[in-house]
Amino acid sequence: MNNSKLTSTVAAAALVAAGMAAPAIAEVDFSGETIEWVIPFSETGGSAKWANFFAPLLSEELPGNPTVVVKFMPGAGSTKGANWFQEQVHEDGTVLFGTSGSTQFPYLLDDPRVRYEYSDWIPVMASGTGGVAYLNAEDGAKFDGSANALKDIDFIYGSQGATRLDLVPLLAWEMLGMNVEPVFGIKGRGDGRLMFERGEATIDYQTSSGYLGASADLVASGTAVPMMTWGALDEEGNIVRDPTFPEIASFKEVCEATDGCETSGEQWDAWKAFFVAGFPVQKIAFLPAGTPDDVKQAYSDAFDAVRKRDDFATLAALQVGKYPVFVGEGAAKATVAGTTVSAEAKAFVQNWLQEAYGVSLN
Question: Quick one: signal sequence residues (predicted)?
């Protein structure tokens, strides 16, 4: 991210954090309205499951109980939809947009296709997620907690693109010394899972909602074997086991058990930086620039009510995982965290993309 982007993003969050709130909030009523929640991915992936999970709960909590309809706008790894949203002007709160790490990473890496600016948008909810990598049954039988026995296998992986969230697994597998050949161009992670199910791919990963929604069934049937999660962050910023999948080792653990894989140094620091940007604040719901403060507050209050429901933790654990949900000031701070990486990490990944995949973003 260039300095002007970073400055404007941090400044926007600082205003929120400083408590510079707008004047008194007027009454908002969405009675009879239809809210379009646009997701820039296909209907088969984790973002679809995330939005479809929250949509009916949001409908129950917004004033007037409007209908919340999830719509999909896949293309160019989500930059098509994000560029579209950048141009939207809706002051009535009837358009909501959902991003994921695959939208954040092109922004962080200065992808020339990016014509959107996160600091222009109004975050009303942000939530974390995790990810699970898994193998087919044949190769999974060789996995012993390290990747040592997997290094002489040629894997195939269905990928949305190396500059998307897929850079986290692709770099992790390279660090483990594995030979994973990505087949680029799929529209969503659900399409990658379908490739795996058809035997066209031999390794896959899904975000938590996608894994819980379908991939866990593959594991239960014996056709897939969990390899690792990306982990989660504790209060000190250390990578620990994912609370949704405590029985599955983290990448950090597998790396420590694998010959030649290091959990310190430039490569590790770059991987961790993009993991942090892509997963603890993985999915964010935005209103367009120019949305009035009363509408923004209505959404923040509604999402706050959703996360405080007595049954929310149980419902979320089954469908999207056990991760924090941020609203209001918390959502603004989370957005900054999810759209910021160090210059060193950015430079490392840009060089790696060029060397590994011939991807130049300059």
Answer: 1-26
In-domain check, residue 351 = no
Question: Strand, helix or coil at 144?
Answer: coil
**pLDDT tens, 276-287?**
888 988 899 999
Same domain, yes or no, for 144 and 264? Answer: yes
The DSSP bridge pattern shows strands 224-229 and 131-136 to be antiparallel
Handedness of CA 183, 187, 193, 196 (dihedral sign): negative
In a domain, 122, yes or no: yes
> Cα(186)–Cα(77) distance, rounded to whole angstroms?
8
Are 242 and 252 spatial neighbours (Cβ–Cβ below 8 Å)?
no
The mean pLDDT value of the chain amounts to 91
Nearest to 117 by CA among 21, 24, 4, 211: 4
361 vs 132: which has the higher pLDDT: 132
Number of domains in the chain: 2
- CB–CB of 219/210 below 8 Å? no
Domain that holds residue 229: 131-277
Contact of 142 with 228, CB cutoff 8 Å? no
47 three-class SS? helix
Q: According to the model, what pLDDT value does residue 362 have?
A: 64
CA angle at 87 for the pair 67 and 342, rounded to the nearest 5°:
105
SS3 337: helix
Total count of residues recorded for the chain: 362
pLDDT at 292: 96
**Confidence (pLDDT) at 11:** 40
Q: Which residue's entry shows tokens 């594991």?
A: 219
Q: Looking at residue 243, what is its pLDDT?
A: 95
Q: What is the pLDDT of residue 268?
A: 97
For residue 292, the domain's CATH number is: 3.40.190.150
pTM attached to this predicted model: 0.82
What is the C-alpha separation between 96 and 38, in angstroms, rounded? 6
